[in-house]
Every structure is written in structure tokens, then in C-alpha cells.
Amino acid sequence: MILLAADTSSNSTSLALYNNGEVYSMRADGAEPSASRMYVLLDAVLRAAGVEIRALEALAVGAGPGSFTGLRVSFVAMRTLAWTRGIPLIPVNSLEALVWPQRMLDAPLAVVQPARRGHVYQMALRAGALIQEVGFYPLDEARARIRELGGGAFLAGTPDDLELELPVLVQREGPDAADIARLALGRLEAGERPVLEDVLPLYLRPSDAEVSASLSENA
Fold first, then answer.
1. pLDDT bracket for residue 207 (50, 70, 90)
2. CA 119 → CA 6, 110, 152, distances in Å?
3. pLDDT tens across 48-84, in order?
4. 163 Cβ partners below 8 Å, 6+ apart?
5. What's the rounded Cα separation, in Å, for the pair 209 and 212?
6. Which domains does the chain possess?
7. What is Dmax (Cα atoms) for the chain?
8. Is 193 left (phi over 0), alpha (psi -120 to 50) or beta?
9. Is residue 129 classed exposed, middle or buried when 0-12, 13-18 and 19+ CB atoms within 10 A define those classes?
């Protein structure tokens, strides 16, 4: 199986190519994702693996949650590629992928990512199962949800703003596309083949335009 995965759910652009057991990955951190950066990394990862684009058999994309602008970059590229090549595109929850190596931890693991305007995205897993649904929460509410998990919980992602006295297992903004690829491979092996029109980004927070419109209406 040759599978290309991408994630632009945070201020990073991450691409990975799984080629029959070998993984090649590229990542650009610290800048908002853009189409030009995405295609530069795409070319680089294909060249590193010695694979031509026509050899791809499947695609995977980090579905978010994340910003409208960031997620749009990877979704436009990967949906276009899936359509032109006639190959499946698997959406993967980006927060789940961020803690893929720790997914079977037998303790609550709360994953947190920044969402601007004093909010975060947050979810929690235990032993590979979802115990708190991913959502968009103000800091106080996210803090309360994580406290509900108990004192034996761990944190992952970028939880510093929550000021919780819990051990941080993974400190990183955004997943590695290599873990997006690994999650997608498992779903492909299980027979998952989503209809392309149903593969959509996970938008949880209102856009800046919607926020501005709401503020104007309430002024």
C-alpha cells in the first residue's frame, strides 16, 4: 500500500508517505499553512520516497478540529488528488492522531489544542476509546471537563493555558502526518471507503467573519 497523508490543522504543515512499510515525512512548523507550502512539501516527500504521484493508492487527511484557513489548505489539495486519481480519502481526527502512540494508555488522556479567543479544542481517550467527545470550549469549561477525569489523568497537546497540575505526556501543537497515515491504514484494512463528498473538515469554532457579524448585531 502506498498512502499519502497530510495535516494542516495547526500552525504546522505535515505530510507523510507510507510506502509498503516505510514512512517518509516532512514538516514545516511555526507558520500558518498555505497552498504553496503544502505543494513544496508534497513534492519533497514524493522525491524522498522515490514515488511518483500516479503510484498513490490511498490518501488520508487530518480532519481537524482546526481553523477554517488551515484545514481548507489540506482538504482542497487532498480532495482534488483523490478525485483526479480515483482513490479513497480517509479523514482522521487530528487530536486523536496527535496521541496515536499513546492511544492504549490505561488512564484518561486529555488532548488540548489552542482555538483562539480564549478557547481550546479538547477531547479525552482511555485505552483507545473516546471518553470525552471533541469540542470547542472556553478555558474554564475545558478545565472543568478535564478535572472530571480525576487525578490520574494525563495531558497532551498544548495545555499550558489551563494551568492544571497534571503530567503532560505529549507537548506538541498538531499531529504528525505519519500518525494520520497509520490511523488511516487501519481503517482501510477494515474496509472503510468513504464517499468523497462526505469527507469534510471538522469545523467546531465560528469563523472570524461569523464572530464579527455577531458582535455587530449585538452592538
1. low
2. 25, 15, 24
3. 999 999 999 999 999 999 989 999 999 999 999 999 9
4. 143
5. 5
6. 2-94+174-207 (3.30.420.40), 96-171 (3.30.420.200)
7. 58
8. beta
9. exposed
For the chain, the C-alpha Rg in angstroms (whole number) is: 18
42 contact partners, CB below 8 Å, separation of at least 6: 4, 6, 15, 77
pTM summary value: 0.90
Q: Beta partners for 14? A: 7, 27
The predicted structure's pLDDT at residue 116: 81
Interior/surface letters 85-119, b for 16+ CB within 10 angstroms, e for the rest = bebbbbbbbbbbbbbbebbebeebbbbbbbbeeeb
Please give the grid coordinates belonging to residue 178.
Answer: 505519519
The amino acid present at 174, given as its one-letter code, is: G
